[in-house]
Request: fold
Amino acid sequence: LGTTLARGYPGGTDLSGADLRGADLTRADLDGAILLGADLTGAELAKASLRGVIADNTTTWPAGFTPPTAE
Reply:
């Protein structure tokens, strides 16, 4: 918990089921990332790039965060 991954992860990374609670993903390039079942509770997603992410109803987003819509 509380990991800093700012600007980390190349686009398209498979993060299915990842525990990213409290992670600092500020400005992270998550374009095309697979987030099925990932837990992003409390994660910081300011200015993160989330184009084309693959998520579903098992993906947990930070409170108040509006998940990206499918393109």
